[in-house]
C-alpha cells in the first residue's frame, strides 16, 4: 500500500508562494514536473521541497499527476538556487524560462508517419501502387502522412488499406533518436591539434574547469571546440554551445547540422512552440546530444550535460537587461561548476573579467597563435579627421573614398561600419529648432527614412515622417542631424552609383528564408558594399571582404562607464577582423578625431594582449571591476520625488549595515530619466574588496527589502549599462 506524502510545489509565477500538496504516487519526488489544482485552474509546477509537516495532510489538495514523467536533476535545482542567490532575481523567473508556455499537459500528437515493410503484396489498386513506388523513393522508405497527402493527394483510406494489408506500418518518429555522428573527421592544423591536446590532457572526470580559448578571428577556434564536443557526444554525453544572436548565425547552424545531423538541435525565441517542446523533451531525455542556443538555453534541464561552450564570450548580448537581469556567460560558468564539468569560453577579444580570471589562475588559457600564411589580419590605417577633409554633407573622408574606388575596380567587397541604426540620430524642426522626442521616454527619436518614420529605439514609439512639430505646429520638414547607416548608404549611392550596396542592421535584416537569400548575395560577392551596424561584428563570415572602413571610431569612447575602452576595442577589432580572412591584402581604415587614444593605438599596432593587460591594471588601480564589484539598484515609478525618497531610505538602511570597504552612490535620476512613461532613479553600490562575508550581508539585505507598491525595484549585479 502506498503512503501519502506531502511536498512543496513551486510555480513559474514569482507572486505565488511555494504551496503544499499531497500525493500517493511513489514516482513523484523533488524535481518532478507536476500538474496541480490551483483555485479553479490546473497549473504546472515543480516539486521543490518536502512538505511543511505543520499542515494537516487530509486538508491538502492532491497532485494530479506528473507531466511527461519529467524530473529535474538535483544539479539543475542546485543551479537555479545559486542563480537566484547570485542575481537576486526570483527563482521562478528562471524556472519560467525553462518550462514557460510549453503546455505539456496538452501534449500534441507526434506527426503520423508510415514506413514500407515489404514488397510482397497482391491485388492492389492503381492508387496503392503509386503510393508504394512513392515510398520506395523516400529516404529509409519512411514518409509523413501530411507529406504523402501533399505530394500524391491520396486519401487516408488508401494509406489505411495498405496498413491493414501489412504493407505499411505506422512509425512514431523522434528525429533526435540518432545514434552516431555522420561526419567525416576534419583535419586540424598543428596549432589546433595542440590546443585540443592541451585541453584534453587536463581533463579529469567530474572536475569543474574553465578554459579561455583565445585566438584571432579565423584562427579556427570553432574546430577546436567542436572536436572536444564530438568526444563528449561519442561518449553519449550532452554538449551546449551558446552563441550571441543565434537566430542570425545561419552559417554556423548549417555547419553544425551537417556534421551532427539529428543529434543537434537549436533553441531560441524564434522557434515554434511545437519545436521548442520537442527540443525540451529531447534535452530532458538525453536523446539530443548537442544544443546550440541563445542565452536562455542555459535554463534547460539537461539530463547529462558535460561540456558548455560560450562562443564570443565577450559579447554584450549575453547580458539580459530586462528582468530577470543576468549575464549568461557568468551563469554558464556557474552551471558548469554545479555539473562539475568543463566550460570553454571562446573569443578573439576576451572580456576583461575573463582575462582577469586567467591571470588569477582561476581559468586555464589556451592560445591559438597565428602563423604566417594561415591566418591573415588586415593592415590597419588610422585616418586623422583633424587633418583630413570630408566633402560638404559627407561623412566619408577622401582617403576612404579613394580606397573604395580602388577596391571596386579590383572587384573586392567593402564593409562600411557605423554603429547607428536609421538615417539620422536627431531631427530638428526647421521653424522652431526643437528636436523630436519620445512620448514615453526621455530620448530623442531616430529618423528612419526607409520606414518613413521617427522611431524610439528604447520603447518602439514612432511617429510618421509627416508629423507636425509638437511645439510650433509647423508641418515643414525636420532637418536630420548626424549620420546613421541609411544616410551613409545614400552617400555611397551618390558617390558610386554603379555599386550594389546593402544595409546590414537589425532593421534591414529579415529573418528566415529571405535572410538566407540576403546572406547568399553577400557571401557570393554580388553585393559590393555592405553598410553595417555592430550586427556585422557577431561572427559572420564574408569570404570576399577585403576593405573595412570604420566611420566613427570615437562614438563608443564617449560613454562614461568603466567598460568604455574594452567595449570599443572589442567591437572595432571584431569588425576589422572580417576583412581579408582568406588573403593577405585585407585593409582596415579607421576614421577618428583621437588617433593617439590607447584603444586606437592598440588596434593600429595589433597589441591585443598588451591592451588587455594595461586595461586590467588600470581598472585595478581605479578600484573598479573586475577589482571589487558594482551592484546597481534601479527604482522606477510615476513620481520622481517618491523614488528619490525611497532611494534615500535605502541608502540609510545600507549605512546602518556598517560595512567596511563599501560605498553607495545616489539616489540620482538615471541618465535616461524616463523609459516607457516611468521615471527612473539609480543607486550604485561599489565594493572595493567584496569579501564573501560582506557579499552575503549585502545580498541578505537586498533580498529582504520591502518595496512600496508604486515602485518597481530591480537589482543589476555586475551592470553593463548605466543609463
Ligand atoms: Zn517647431
Ligand atoms: Zn520611447
Overview of the structural elements:
The protein has 723 residues and is of the alpha/beta class. The chain folds into five domains: 1-71, GIY-YIG endonuclease; 113-171; 190-368, P-loop containing nucleotide triphosphate hydrolases (Rossmann fold, 3-Layer(aba) Sandwich), CATH 3.40.50.300; 379-420 and 483-618, Rossmann fold (3-Layer(aba) Sandwich), CATH 3.40.50.300; 629-717, Alpha-Beta Plaits (2-Layer Sandwich), CATH 3.30.70.600. The protein has 19 helices and 32 strands. The strands form eight sheets. A seven-stranded parallel β-sheet has the order 11-12-10-13-16-9-17, with helices on both faces. It has a six-stranded parallel β-sheet with strand order 18-28-27-19-26-25, sandwiched between helices. The chain has a five-stranded antiparallel β-sheet with strand order 2-1-4-3-5. Strand 1 and strand 2 (19-23) form a beta hairpin. The model has no long low-confidence stretch (mean pLDDT 86). Bound molecules: zinc ion (2 copies). The site of one zinc ion has 8 residues, from loops.
